[in-house]
Each structure stands twice: as C-alpha cells, then as structure tokens.
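To whoever is covering the structure queue this week,

Two jobs came back overnight. Logging them here so there's a record in the thread.

Job A:
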Amino acid sequence: MTVLMATPTRRWLSTTELLQSQGISRSLLNQLKRTSVLKQGIHYRRLGTSSKSPMQWLEAEVEATLMTFAAQPEALEVIQ
C-alpha cells in the first residue's frame, strides 16, 4: 500500500490580503521588509521586473516569521 503525503499549498496573497489576514499595519510590514526581516524570494515576490511592481506574499512564511517575533517582543523594539 502506497501512502501519498499531501504537499502543503503555497498560498500567495496581495499586500492588502496579507495585512488583513495577519492583522498588521502597512507601516510594520514595510519596516520588516526594509530591515530584511522579510526577504524577497522567501517571504515575497514581485509580479514584474520593476521595483514598483505589485508584491505577493507567501502567507505561511510571513506568518512563521511574525510568530517568532510574537514570542520575542523585544526583537520588535529593535526594529522600531
């Protein structure tokens, strides 16, 4: 008998969808991106080649990173 393991779905969200799903502000998201806490290619991707192209966020990766900071609130103080 062969057991197939389900592959987790990679759910990409727009910035607005991510802010709503994670309950964070745009300014906090921008700070986390600017300080390289959230990294391109790991947490987000651009939909075009321009630096002005819309971004999509990998929900599970962003949530895991935010959970790390929730467990260590002093780390967020360093960012602010």
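Job B:
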Amino acid sequence: MAWPTADGVWHIGTGLTLPPGASVADLNKLLTLCHIERAQIGFHRPNDEAKFNDLKEEVSALIKTVAYKPKEINFIPISAFQGDNITTSSENTPWYKGPSLVESLAELKAPEKPTQLPLRVPVQDVYSITGVGTVPVGRVETGIMKRGDNIIFEPPGSSGEVKTIEMHHEMLDQAEPGDNVGFNVRGVGKNDIRRGDVAGHTSNAPTVAKEFTAQIVVLQHPGVITVGYTPVFHCHTAQVACTFMELQKKLDPATGQTKEENPDFLKTGDAAFVVVKPTKPMVIEKIKEIPHMGRFAIRDMGQTVAAGMCIDIVPAK
C-alpha cells in the first residue's frame, strides 16, 4: 500500500518513504527496486468528496507514468485514528462507496510461489527446545524444503539433515515459499547459526559475498554519500555494515542512462551503480537469479537513507 500525506511525503508499504518534492522518476525507481507490482492507495482523511476526487485524479495521472493502471487500484479515504474505512465502511465518508482497507487487501490475489528457485530460508531466530534440540526459525523465501534434505547454513557453513519441520505446532513433510517454519537439523547446534544466516540445499548453497555491485537510489540523506561510507544494509534478516568501495556511475532516474561516470558523491534523489564490501560475511543473491534475496534497504542515523538491489557478486567462497 502507498499513501501521500499533507506534507508531500509518499509512504510506501515497505516502510520506506520518499521526501517532499520527490519526482515521478524517484517513485518509479523505488517501486522497481522494491519489486512492488501491485498497490492499494489510501488518502489520509481528505476533507470532503471534492478533495478526495481531486487527489484521486492527481495520483492516477502520477501512477500511470510508472506502469500502474488506476482502474485496477482502489483509492481509499482512511483515518487509522478514527477507524474510518479501515475494516468497515465509515459513516464519516458517506460519499465513498468502495471497499475498506482490509477488504481491499483481501481482494488481492496471492502471487505464484517461486518453488522452482533454489531453496533459501533466512534465519529469524534460533531456539533450543527440550526433546527436539536446536530449532532455527524462518520464512521459506524460495524453493522447497523437505524432511531428509541435506542443507547448509551460510555464511558459517554448518550443514546437516533436516529431521523435522513444524509450522503452527503442526508437523510438515515439506515447507514451501511463504511458510514460517521451525526446523531441526541433525548435527547443527545453537551456537553454530544465528539470525541473518541463510539455509539452502548443499547442492546449491546460498551465496556469500566478498563484495557486490548494486544499483541504489538515495531516498533521504542529510549529507552526501562518498567512498568509505559504511551504513548498515538490511537484507532479508541480516543486518550488516557495508562499505562503499566505488561509485561507478550516476544514473538519470528518468531514463536509466548513465549521467556521470565515477561521481565524487551521491545525494538525495540520485540513482547509481556502486561497489560495496560487507564488513563481515553476508549472504545476498543476484536480483536476476533469486530476486527475493537480492534487495536491501540502507539505514543510518535511525532512518532509511537508500534502497537497492544486487546486480553482481564477487563470492567469498
């Protein structure tokens, strides 16, 4: 979901925001980087029907330019504080005849599960359970995990056989993309793995990056980004400080063409190709190979300063 507020800030349902004055190209780049294919749009407490219709017309023109079809999107006047059109239709907006926010989200069709891709399960937490042993917990992003599979956790390299898979206290024979599961692996102890590690089959192990090339867009940064800058990259469940080693080229957000080779710095609104080096081993995948594992947010000073996707990798193993 996306919603614009009165101060001109666009809030995207991923937790990212675009600053006031952001262009159509900025919105397009962010939606592309975050792989947001479908959207529902909420307007925060428009004063009346006329104001709502003006906003709807304005935003419809905007999203047409970034490949969305306004006829396929619900525009909803909402107020979370008042509860207007959140779960049910509100008496405060009798002129609005569409679905509530929850009803609108329920109309969305689930995407096809990426079962054909290699298994990737980012670890969210690790528990020790009496009678079972070590149980890592995480969501299956891609592929299928079955009991008896030989899997490996990267970056640590710990491996073993899947003994049990459990979801919502129910034992499973296999887990598919979207399943939040706990699973026990023979020979893997609690101290061998941690949050941010990624499980995959030993025959197609998760990629550990020594360094990687990324395409990023700077969303909001109070200063400039230069070589040597080391913010925290949030990729799946991993949070790893990464250093900018090279600013390869700045892009024109509107066309995607090269605007400047080897720029000295990047600022808010810039899109660029950069080379990044993690300060410790980190799993990330190329966006074209496993897109669910190739996107990241960059955070610093308590805010998301940039977002991006991995284009190429120099493997550490």
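Note for Job B: The CA atoms of residues 57 and 183 lie 49 Å apart.

Please reply-all if you pick these up so we don't duplicate work.
Q.
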